[in-house]
């Protein structure tokens, strides 16, 4: 048994009750609200996710209403939050709960794991907060607190580390108040035991934290180096017709931004000049049956859009055409479509600013 386990959990809960942020999903055990908040806060800070949570609750107060919403509407409401597979999984799960489970969320950790997009962390959060089950959450904040307090140097992104920390988390959870404890350790990691320069001198654990005693706070937790970042070169062809229309296409292949809309895209292995662009087979296909009047580069310096494990170096080419192009939409309707934030920023700058 780890040292001072009851003291550790009791101290955390006490700190939490005196210092917690008042957030709309706290103070409720409604599994729809908890599930929604947990999905949104994966890989997202509370300050960024909070407005989206409020928008979703306002537009879809129940899981049944979310289930019956068009997918495009859900993606549009999610726009800007990133990791769009979360939104698609959210919608799929809402349909499953509404139809197959008669609108009632599963009440056990094991059954919660059967929901699309719900992993160990989210299932543990819902099980503990909504149903008072002793299922410990483990996320980046929890890894950091446990690693430092207990002085564990096993890499958190290794299979051995994930098993070790999950086992430890289960050992130290307060079984009488598992939901409160889980929220406490996440809150403590997010607001006090932060990644850089935590205020250890005023920490409630400065008399028992192994990392603080051994001066290893900055070294823990240990994380194995991730794979190198891949660079991709995007060239968006922004068609502008004489009657103020443009073309958007839906991404249907595997990979980033599935089912979101974008301008016709030509991806290259490096930056290209206009003459080089025109020689590409992708450009030949794009310009078929199109009487191009002019092509001009909107941004000479690529916009660097950073995603996990890849950076998109993006340039927008403005294409005017004399001949009528199929499937164009009025420029004024672009804002109705769910697009990546990269496209949204360009649209706001180019069309609204012009």
UniProtKB/TrEMBL annotation:
It is an enzyme of class 3 (hydrolase). Its EC number is 3.2.2.31. Residues 40-191 form the HhH-GPD domain. It comes from the Bacteria. SUPFAM superfamilies: DNA-glycosylase, Nudix. Keywords: 4Fe-4S, DNA damage, DNA repair, Glycosidase, Hydrolase, Iron, Iron-sulfur, Metal-binding. Its cofactor is [4Fe-4S] cluster. Pfam families: HHH, HhH-GPD, NUDIX_4. PANTHER family: ADENINE DNA GLYCOSYLASE. Adenine glycosylase active on G-A mispairs. MutY also corrects error-prone DNA synthesis past GO lesions which are due to the oxidatively damaged form of guanine: 7,8-dihydro-8-oxoguanine (8-oxo-dGTP). Belongs to the Nth/MutY family. This is Adenine DNA glycosylase. It comes from Aequorivita echinoideorum. The lineage of its organism: Bacteria, Pseudomonadati, Bacteroidota, Flavobacteriia, Flavobacteriales. The gene is mutY.
């Amino acid at each position: 048994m780890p040292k001072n386990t009851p003291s550790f959990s009791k101290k955390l809960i006490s700190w939490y009750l005196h210092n917690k942020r008042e957030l709309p999903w706290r103070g409720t055990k409604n599994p729809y609200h908890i599930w929604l908040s947990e999905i949104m806060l994966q890989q997202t800070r509370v300050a960024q996710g909070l407005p989206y949570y409020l928008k979703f609750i306002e537009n879809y107060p129940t899981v049944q209403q979310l289930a019956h919403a068009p997918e495009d509407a859900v993606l549009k409401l999610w726009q800007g939050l990133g990791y769009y597979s979360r939104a698609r999984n959210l919608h799929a799960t809402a349909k499953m709960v509404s139809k197959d489970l008669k609108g009632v969320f599963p009440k056990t950790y094991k059954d919660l794991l059967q929901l699309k997009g719900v992993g160990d962390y989210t299932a543990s959060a819902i099980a503990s907060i909504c149903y008072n089950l002793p299922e410990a959450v483990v996320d980046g904040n929890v890894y950091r607190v446990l690693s430092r307090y207990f002085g564990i140097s096993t890499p958190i992104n290794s299979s051995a580390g994930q098993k070790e920390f999950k086992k430890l988390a289960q050992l130290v959870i307060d079984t009488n108040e598992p939901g409160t404890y889980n929220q406490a350790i996440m809150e403590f990691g997010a607001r006090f035991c932060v990644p850089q320069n935590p205020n250890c001198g005023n920490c409630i654990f400065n008399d028992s934290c192994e990392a603080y005693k051994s001066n290893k706070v900055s070294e823990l937790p240990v994380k194995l180096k991730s794979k190198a970042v891949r660079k991709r070169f995007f060239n968006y062809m922004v068609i502008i017709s004489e009657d103020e229309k443009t073309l958007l296409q839906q991404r249907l292949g595997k990979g980033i931004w599935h089912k979101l809309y974008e301008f016709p895209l030509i991806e290259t292995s490096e930056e290209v000049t206009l003459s080089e662009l025109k020689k590409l087979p992708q450009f030949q296909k794009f310009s078929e049956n199109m009487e191009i009047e002019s092509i001009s580069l909107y941004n000479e310096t690529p916009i660097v859009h950073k995603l996990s494990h890849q950076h998109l170096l993006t340039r927008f080419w403005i294409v005017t055409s004399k001949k009528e192009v199929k499937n164009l939409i009025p420029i004024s309707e672009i804002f109705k479509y769910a697009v990546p934030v990269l496209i949204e920023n360009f649209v706001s700058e180019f069309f609204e600013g012009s």
